[in-house]
Amino acid sequence: MDKAATNGVAKTDSAKKEWQYSRVELYLESITLSADKLKPTPSEKDGLDELSEYDLRYTGCELIQTAGILLKLPQVAMATAQVLFQRYYYFKSFVNNPMEIFAMASLVLASKIEEAVRRNRDIINVFHYLKFRRANLTPEPLTLDGNYQYIKSQVIKAERKLLRELGFCVHVKHPHKLITVMLQALSCERHRVLLQTAWNYMNDGLRTDIFVRFTPETIACACIYLAARQHKVALPIDPPWYEVFKCNEQQLNEISHTLLYLYVHQPQSVEQLDETLQKLKEKINENKAKSKLASLNAVVSAAAASNGVTTPLTQSMNQSPNSKAPSPSEAKDPKKLEKLLKNASRPSSENSPDDHRHSPSNHSKTHRHHSSHKHSRKRSKEVDRGSSKHSRHKKHRSRSPPVSPKRRRTGSSESSVDSHNGFDRRSGANKKHKKAASRDSKNKKYASSKSDVRERNRHY
After folding, report:
1. pTM of this structure
2. Smallest Cα–Cα separation from 62: which of 20, 6, 107?
3. Which of 31, 228, 257, 380 could form a disulfide with 233 if both were Cys (CB 3.0 to 4.6 A apart)?
């Protein structure tokens, strides 16, 4: 092969490597989370204690299970919703994502995944009913007002957030079938009590986070192990039966302790949990405001030090409430920064932007300015009124030239527009008097002619 051909092959290989697209790989093993995602959780980073987070997880899963029963959903759909709910809160915090809204969204999404779809309105109605039932009050129907529309939109947005954060990997492998298969391998399939107890442990384990920490085979082995110890059923020990299913004793003990703690622990009420979350939100907002102020002070002080300005800007800004924080471009420019420092160092009475309007020197100018505008507006209104009034009588229309803009701006008392009829005084005043005089003379002539006629009649 010649040199040109080898160069062409090398170029095509490099182009393939350069334009190679990225890919997303989804496996069943990806349903379990790694240790770095399990601890610390996003809620713990926001300051929520471990016990409150445990109670929030438990309460959310309990709401999903109860609502699923009332909606007559299959158990598979309820189990999927609880696993998605637990998974989501290892990516996001309870502080910024309301528990009840995301419990509804998990149920909506799980009903679609398991092909037992329920309407958003039905799910919202059931959660509304559970709220009254939890408070021991008489349930009231949910009114279709703005509040309902807001909740519905929040549920739709929460469903999208769930899909986005989980990377659309919503497949859940449930270990329920594995219990039957394992008991058949152990020749205990006829032990109905053992099977039912292991099944119950598995359904109760959905309230915990074991489904995101362990594989389905390990969870099934732990449920059988716990049920066998409760009913005192002997299982093979040498070799241990759970090693066949790739499990160890430490994992079984950990899952068993988690399940048994579920029956002992008394969770907090929803009101107490809401109060805890509200306090945390306020605290986080306070810390954000303080950090913003500290970063602004640091930037300003650094810019002032680099430009050789000795006056502390932060102190002067605190003294003058009307001063503004400098932008990054102003902080870099020494002239602009010095100007800001001078403005900030003035007292608040000098620094207020409205003081120049009320100063004695500018008072007369401002008054004249406003009065001229006022007079010009008044004149324009009067002209319009006069023109509309005399449009019916074409005799009285004025053909005078328009008012000069100079006189309109000055607003002097010698206005060229009559305030009553809109005529120009210089051209229309004399005409008005002439018409009145002619009208009077006509009336006099008419009266004299009448008197002459009477005298003639008397004479005849």
Report:
1. 0.62
2. 107
3. 228
